[in-house]
């Protein structure tokens, strides 16, 4: 038998040409995306790219890394099929990428939810995409009108159904703050993709009822995204966030949409994409202008500060922090929307975010002052996860100032508070602590060695799993 001749991948060759890449530059871009998703492709070089152009199919998730690299370079979404790679089992987590603006919201929720519930690979392999952060806000009215025309064929939906979703959201939200994103994550997804999706397809007796249900669905979808984000499932979180934006748009709830944009900014800055975080946070402020309460505006402003800090702008960071503090001082907690009250955004949360912004700028004394303020004013039982993370951040800042003993005390308290918390961010904080201790060198004090061993045991026994 003669060996079957490979067919040259002209689509990939033309895309590389459009990016104005050499094969070396293409390989480097793929390595960057792989590293962001904790995949070691350091061996990827120009010869691999040459083989792909010659017709060899990349293995594993590499076609998706390549598609994301090209998307970032060209500024619009590019799928693996656009690069000449056939969709098969290795690409199933894409589900067509992140262009979720075609079908109605209920259909999209069911599609994502079922994939999340039934296909483990979807949650673990869905990629986070920078190109998808360009949310088409200017097209929202047309998208909302199309969504409204798709409604009205299902069960009757009224105040009792709205109240039921509101009560379930409250239960899930309280548990999330206390036990972390990994706790009951799939229970939220199951409820969202079954009961809530059915309600969205229902018949409403009034437009106000319809808007109320879509707002609640947006909050529940946001929560699904937040739980995925806290579980370090970033590609999955991004998909839920995009759907939350659509639902808030159809509810004509601009402030709630801005709340989700703020969460997307939070995710971007945590992943090291400062400029994109700044763009999203500024979009949140602009999109909510005229419809947002003082505390909500303060929340959006403090994420603007995080974005400026991540891009190294000290002056604008300070201005944004001051603006956030001023707006929060004007707020009346009982008059804030439910999603502000549920998330517990107060002086405590603002100080935590301000501390992280100052840390990113290298102002460790200023960061320590803010983080201490946050810890001192937080209800650590109700908000266990964020209390844990703030203690870990304080330890990090103290270690950076050479005060290892104080840092160790706070890291120990952080791990004490982690008991029963299922959070990928908590695990990441422990890994960061161990990296800090490893950087001290061979003369590590005995108390620090014990702390490192405790962290290793915690990670090994899965006390704070990312789980689902």
Would you mind describing this structure in some detail?
- The chain is an all-alpha fold and 468 residues long.
- Among the domains are: 10-86; 104-129 and 158-252, no CATH class.
- Helix content is 67%, strand content 1%.
- The chain has 22 helices and two strands.
- It has helices spanning 10-18, 23-36, 46-54, 62-74, 105-118, 120-125, 140-149, 159-179, 185-200, 207-230, 234-250, 254-270, 274-288, 294-310, 314-329, 338-343, 347-361, 364-377, 384-400, 404-417, 424-438, 446-461; strands at residues 156-157, 203-204.
- It has a two-stranded parallel ribbon with strand order 1-2.
List keywords for this structure.
468 residues; mainly alpha; two-stranded parallel sheet; 22 helices; 2 strands; globular
Compact overview of the structure:
With 468 residues, the protein is mostly helical.
Radius of gyration computed on alpha carbons: 23 Å
Strand content is under 5%
Count of alpha and pi helical runs: 22
User: Percent range for helical residues?
Assistant: 55-70%
User: Which class of secondary structure composition applies to the elements?
Assistant: mainly alpha
Basic shape: globular
Along the chain, the helix and strand elements come as HHHHHHHEHHEHHHHHHHHHHHHH
Query: For the residues shown, what is the average pLDDT?
Result: 87
- Report how far apart the termini are: 49 Å
| Largest sheet: number of strands, sense, barrel closure | 2 strands, parallel
Order of strands across the widest beta sheet?
1-2
Q: List the uncertain runs.
A: 89-93, 463-468
| Tally of DSSP β-strands | 2
